[in-house]
Amino acid sequence: MDITKVLSETYAVLEKLGERYISLIPKDVFADIEAGRDKTYTPIVDEDKDLDKQGLSKEAIALIFSLKRDYMCDTQEEKDGITAIMEANDEKLKAMFANAKSTMQLLRMFKENK
Questions:
Q1: Where are the domains of the chain?
Q2: pLDDT above 90 for 14
């Protein structure tokens, strides 16, 4: 897994979502995503397609879900629903989610598992 590609895909989705959503993410987390991305790789994100139909890596989708869960959910019920979806997917990602209590931990895990 190429962490710079994961971060580029995550960044592209966040940019497409716009400042309203980016502003919900702590500045240091967004700065890590922005600084760590591959600036020569710019994935195309189509607003009319579901996230899983964008050709993004599983890791990028997982990171986006983690950002949503940790910073954009309004209720605990919504957070729990996202966590359940994340845990029901790929076994490697499921193991990462089980051990990651926050987006920052997930970012660190991605970097360690390059």
A1: 3-112
A2: yes
